[in-house]
Amino acid sequence: MNKIVQMSCAVALASLSAGAFAQCSVTSTISAVGSVAGNTCGHNAGFTPICGGTDSTNNKGLDAFQVTVGASQNFTITVTSTTANFNPELAVIGSPCATTTNCIIDDTAGATAGPDTFSGQPAGTYFILVTDLNAEAPGCGDYNLVTAGTLPVKLQDFSVN
Question: What is the distance between the alpha carbons of residues 9 and 21, in angstroms, rounded to a whole number?
Answer without folding.
Answer: 20
